[in-house]
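FAQ
Q: What does a multi-component entry look like?
A: The components come first, one per line:
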Amino acid sequence: MGFLRERFARHVAWTSDSPLGLAVERAYGPYIELDNGHRLIDFISGIAVSSIGHRHPRVLSEVERQLDRHLHVMVYGEFIQRAQVEYATLLCSRLPDSLETVYFTMTGTEANEGALKLAKKATGRTKLVAFERSYHGDTHGSLSVTGRAIYREPFMPLLPDVTFLPFGETEALESIDRETACVIAEPIQGEGGIRVPRAEWMQALRARCTETGALLIFDEIQTGFGRSGTLFAFEGFGVVPDILTVAKAMGGGMPLGAFVASSEIFGAFRRDPPLSHVTTFGGHPVSCAAARATLEVILEENLPARARSIEAHIRRRLRHALIREVRGKGALLGMELADKATTERVVRRCLRAGLLLSWTLHSDSLVRLAPPLNIDFDVLETAVDIILKVLGEAEA
Ligand code: PLP
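Then the predicted structure of the entire assembly, as tokens:
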């Protein structure tokens, strides 16, 4: 154990001076087991990834089947790979008709990179519009449209011609104009502190994009695959994007992302020049096999409805003087506490009591609550009991 920790410190790059540093032995369902024998309830799902729990048996068996067929065979887009075709067909069957073509990536940020490039090439415009407090990933393009200056400034210059608007303010939408290639938005801001906009605002955003010819990109990397209570969050607002980006829960624990649009929009990538957006590993066949099993489970077990029951249950039970607000939608919830110190204390004590929670990137007083969608209700009860007990102690 000391040996592992020492090598982790020396040879694995850290992203902060204080990583959680928990040594994982195995994970299954809603649980993560540590090498010291402790078992945690995973109430953040690897940040909205393990929506059907860890190592779901259907995912494992499809992964094994694909391992027996083939791994990587050719760079993306050249060969017909059954695992990609089957998954793209299933995904598109659950999306509006205009979202009919899938470009596979490995990660969320790559999906957004591709979507931004596609929008620029399809419209011949360069202006990008994004929202304050958004998070779209950490590669240069996605970071350029991420709405928090402290994360962008150390890496300037980033992409030019980006305008940030306040999220949820209708008047600001006037800044979307005929020079705008695209507007990128999370239908529910995740890292910005689990913020749900009004449906009327989303509809005004859609209308303004249609009026000006700007393409609307919805980043559903965190909200997608049932987490918000519908298969995709945009369904809950009655608007359809021109380009949809997905990742995280998509692969059931395997790395996979995608951007989805009409075949007409995707025509822009095929010409002038051809091969204007290529990747080696996008849509890895093992990840696509895992993704098909994952989506089948989500649909067969109606997990979007389950997300709504989780929300109702948490909202009913999670009441305490220290909680200022519980906000969000479905199983993408946040519990706002008084300040950073209380939040850190509560998250730390919950961890000691066997419950894994975290905060969101742009908010340090919000505790993220994002359990697997198929979590048993008795495990959910145990998790809420732990939070209430810890809040009681924090108050004392
Ligand atoms: N977009 C959103 C809304 C996200 O929440 C994230 C990751 O948290 C990303 C994009 C980036 O995805 P990835 O970490 O897979 O690159």
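Q: Is there any commentary attached?
A: Sometimes. For this entry: The mean pLDDT is 97.
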